[in-house]
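Morning!

As promised:
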Amino acid sequence: MLELFDGPVPTEELLVRWYQEEAGSNYGAYIPFIGTIRDEDGISGLSFDIYEPILESWFDAWQEKATEAGAILKMAHSRGDVPLHTSSYVAAVFSPKRKVALKMINDFVEDFKASAPIWKYDLRDGKRLYAADRSTPISGSGILGE
Amino acid sequence: MLELFDGPVPTEELLVRWYQEEAGSNYGAYIPFIGTIRDEDGISGLSFDIYEPILESWFDAWQEKATEAGAILKMAHSRGDVPLHTSSYVAAVFSPKRKVALKMINDFVEDFKASAPIWKYDLRDGKRLYAADRSTPISGSGILGE
Amino acid sequence: MVRVEFLGPIQKEALEVEASTLRDVAAALQSDAEVKDWLESCAVAVNDTLVKSLDTALKPGDKVSLLPPVCGG
Amino acid sequence: MVRVEFLGPIQKEALEVEASTLRDVAAALQSDAEVKDWLESCAVAVNDTLVKSLDTALKPGDKVSLLPPVCGG
């Protein structure tokens, strides 16, 4: 399940609702990851663009991988502006097994950072500035420059 | 912070309260781990004994390690009986950095399983049976048998 | 004609390009001053599937998307 | 005398043992049929600190705890 929100994600509600959704599913381990906007470098917040068709197919491929391991994934992300100290990203894995869950949340979050078609902007002095220095080319990038 | 509860841990309340407690602390990553009792092998639940003095010193040593990495840890665990599909264990790391948080929740939970002075019992047919086959000798065990 | 779309921070309207493979798209974009500097760092999707070869065949109406470096979370 | 306590699933009341090192405690427990089989798998704490040497010195009033294999979570 992939949920997108305009502005901050409703972290408390998601953490509780996801727990309750799977309360009877007999998963032994639930590991959420929550990403919150830090006050640094004088920004007033971050802003995000998402390309949904490819985000959805990326997430579906991960859900399939989770299913093969007996696990499931849930994810929520913000579109648009997100103020300091609020959250823009919540992901979670549920698995019967602790070790599967610990490895999967790590691998999922790392691949998310490297591959999910989401662009980040600093909000500073009323401007929306692409965070080029913290961004990563998706694997296979550059073929048009050859 | 280490919190012990008679019976199930109040997972929803903990996940939300811990998030709110650190909402202004400028941590970028929050990763809880929630352990829930699975319905397997005909048990009606699990039960736990805890030796608190050593659990506390074990946790304090981890908190110190977290502090050195700029992170903090929180943990809650059950004492006594915990029914199926309720939770007995919630741990969490907060860190400025994603990678520190992902590594720390893994290492903390794995060391918890290997070292925390907590004993698990299956509840089955009205009896409380030590889960010897799933238990791990603490590092350095056996000196009295030499 | 295929439609070329620019995602995220690339501030550019979509283009219509005559192309039978991605190689034709690359040639058209390399001569476009506005977008040239993005090419080295962009991934490419055809009809919302990422592709990795310039030999990828295109047919009229296909959608080619350029995805600059990402940073979700 | 030191006090020897048995934790978790070891169903045994605490003992008072005459001991100047852990080696003396080991000798006393090895001759105790109720607890003998636990010794190979137990960790040992003196005054709530885990120790790894039989040469650990003990003084009157010290608390020695036996910790059988654990499984929290």
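Strands of chain C lie at 2-6, 15-17, 43-46, 49-51, 63-67.

Hope this helps with the figure draft.
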